[in-house]
Design a protein that fits this description.
- The protein is α/β, with parallel strands linked by helices and 645 residues long.
- 37% of the residues lie in helices and 7% in strands.
- It contains 24 helices and 14 strands.
- Helix 5 packs antiparallel against helix 6, helix 19 runs parallel beside helix 20 and helix 20 runs parallel beside helix 21.
Length: 645
């Protein structure tokens, strides 16, 4: 140090080193501009008090560039809508119903645009060629403001399917985020349909074949000549995209085991498989699909005739499929009880089970299905004509959450099984077509199921149920199929209509009591492919037709009841007059004319009382019928509800 005066030493890190800051400067160091100096060049700010400079970009000491209070004031000055988090904005925008609303939000400000653009471009409308051109042009912009190509996830070209070709699909390869692509019907000369050959499909998860696209793949079967094979995309080019999650090959008759095996081994992420009517698919690929598809949720193999029990009996031991929820083996005629038992064992959480037209199934298979317990909601066993009442009772006992059950053409079922089915608390749909052994007792059981909950105020009124009462359980039945149940009568159907207010579909084709011309006004039109005999027998009521049928039949029953009471009253009046006349005639020989007149007046008085009684009979039911009001659009009122004779 030089004397008592303090030395001005720059702070550490500003134009000097830590070593220089701890030692007195030398002559050589004092002249920092000297060429022989080893120290760095002195900065300009070292000649004055640098801390007075407002620019601290070259200083090691930071100076606050903003005032927190000012920032807070600026935040408070914003309107509340501008202070909403992005999560709330996105959630709000997702609730908008139309793309126009989303577009208007996007044009409001940049903040809203950033949160609305991906929702707007998630599923762009490609219903016309001008819209298709705009989408393709936007996806291929060199420097777009937003990355539109990453936002597109779903694309539907169904309305343009008749003229789609390779030129209209190739520009879509810029959309690298497409996961679902629908609607291809006609390709013309486009021989590279939705395959990994196009970069656009590298991430496709949903793969569907329709009409002419199916024809293209059918031509790619092994029967083609070698010179023809090069024109089409082979299946290996499809299963190279391993992130497929949904496969549909409906009615592709030429697809064989090798193609499905390729998908099974190379697409482990498959969630849904639909091979409806693929007649050349056998048991081996079914085993492979189950074995490799650990995440499989839906498995549909309807009308695959070659599938046998070995498809399931050959599955690895101790392997279960906890994610499998839906199975459809309609018309897999070679399956037996052993296959069903194995399926239920490896897939214990099945919710929908369809074994329609599997005619080899017996009560053993139904008892195996009963092990699903509360998981089972939907079961279709139509045309399984070996099933008996005992199996159905057992099924209802263990699977109380069944909502839909179809037992059509199960001829061995009687009223006992239907009465048990009526106790299902959540039953919404029941199919009993051509169950010709059931009678009105089954329909009464389905109708009176709404009285399982007792009414503490008294016995439930079967004729006039109080649907709006808090103590009555309203029937959950919505669809009832009773076609060709030839033993049913009009009385039971009226009671069913009046006791099931949620009923929206009722099929009574072939039921003699409903082959009436006056009921055709409420009936649906027969399908166009029906012949004349089928049209004459067709009798199905839906929606407003059920409501109209209920009102019409109740009015008819009310009129018939009134006429019957009037007829009874007339007969009673005639009987009273005859009795009075007989009494007067008997008194003619013993009494005078006054007695005769007295007897006739008494008869007249008696007849008047009878007439008053007739009027009372005609008015009392009308007053009772008008006490209730409609509780729903399809709910019968007490004015519509009456007990038929």
């Amino acid at each position: 140090m030089h004397g008592d005066a303090p030395s001005r030493v720059p702070p550490v890190g500003v134009g000097t080193s830590l070593f220089a800051a701890t030692q007195a400067p030398t002559e050589q160091e004092e002249d920092s501009h000297s060429s022989s100096s080893n120290s760095p060049t002195r900065a300009d700010y070292e000649e004055f008090d640098f801390f007075m400079n407002t620019n601290d970009s070259q200083s090691s000491i930071g100076i606050p560039t903003s005032d927190p209070a000012a920032v807070q004031d600026a935040y408070q000055c914003q309107p509340p809508i501008q202070r909403l988090p992005a999560e709330i904005l996105i959630n709000t925008f997702s609730k908008l119903g139309t793309a126009t609303d989303l577009l208007n939000c996007m044009l409001t400000c940049k903040a809203w645009a950033r949160n609305a653009v991906d929702l707007l471009w998630l599923r762009p409308a490609c219903s016309t060629w001008p819209k298709h051109s705009v989408i393709c042009r936007t996806l291929n912009l060199p420097n777009p403001y937003f990355a539109y190509r990453d936002f597109v996830k779903r694309l539907n070209l169904a309305t343009l399917a008749d003229s789609v070709n390779d030129g209209s699909v190739t520009p879509l390869q810029a959309a690298t985020g497409i996961r679902y692509l629908w609607g291809f019907k006609h390709y013309g000369g486009f021989y590279q349909p939705i395959s990994p050959e196009l970069p656009v499909t590298a991430g496709i998860e949903h793969f569907g074949l329709h009409e002419d696209l199916k024809r293209i793949f059918n031509k790619r079967s092994g029967t083609l000549q070698e010179d023809q094979k090069s024109e089409f995309v082979s299946f290996p080019s499809l299963w190279m995209a391993t992130n497929y999650v949904q496969l549909k090959f409906n009615d592709c008759h030429q697809i064989d085991d090798s193609s499905i095996m390729a998908f099974a081994k190379n697409c482990p992420n498959i969630l849904e498989i639909d091979l409806h009517h693929c007649k050349n698919v056998g048991s081996e690929p079914v085993t492979a699909l189950l074995q490799y598809g650990r995440s499989l949720r839906e498995f549909r193999l309807a009308n695959c005739d070659l599938i046998t029990d070995s498809a399931f009996l050959n599955l690895p031991a101790n392997q279960t499929f906890q994610h499998l929820r839906i199975l459809d083996f309609t018309s897999c005629v070679r399956l037996t009880d052993s296959a069903v038992e194995k399926i239920i064992e490896v897939a214990p959480r099945l919710r929908n089970v369809v074994f329609a037209k599997c005619r080899n199934l017996t009560d053993v298979a139904v008892n195996a299905i009963s092990k699903l317990g509360k998981n089972l909601h939907y079961v279709h066993l139509g045309h399984c004509n070996q099933i008996t009442d005992d199996a159905v009772k057992n099924l209802v006992h263990y699977c109380a959450r069944i909502r839909y059950i179809d037992l059509g053409c199960c001829n061995r079922l009687t009223d006992a099984s239907v009465t048990k089915l009526a106790t299902l608390p959540k039953l919404r749909r029941i199919g009993l077509v051509k169950c010709q052994s059931i009678t009105d007792e089954s329909v009464y059981a389905l109708s009176h199921a709404s009285r399982r909950v007792s009414n503490p105020s008294g016995a439930a009124d079967i004729t006039y149920p109080e649907f709006h009462g808090a103590n009555n359980h309203v029937s959950s039945l919505e669809r009832v199929h009773l076609s060709y149940c030839i033993n049913l009568t009009l009385r039971s159907i009226i009671i069913l209509l009046n006791n099931c207010p949620k009923l929206t579909h009722l099929s009574l084709t072939g039921v003699q009591a409903f082959l009436r011309t006056d009921l055709e006004q409420f009936c649906r039109d027969a399908p166009p492919d029906f012949n004349q005999h089928q049209r004459d027998a067709f009798c199905v009521f839906s929606g407003s037709g059920v409501t109209g049928l209920r009102r019409y039949l109740n009015a008819e029953a009310r009129t018939r009841q009134t006429l019957a009471r009037m007829e009874e009253a007339g007969e009673a009046e005639e009987a009273a007059m005859r009795a009075a006349a007989a009494a007067a005639h008997a008194n003619q020989g013993e009494g005078d004319d006054d007695q005769v007149m007295t007897g006739m007046m008494s008869a007249a008085t008696l007849g008047g009382e009878v007439l008053v009684g007739v009027e009372g009979l005609g008015e009392a039911p009308e007053e009772e019928l008008e006490d209730s009001v409609m509780t729903a659009t399809n709910t019968p009122t007490q004015a519509d509800t009456i007990q038929p004779n």
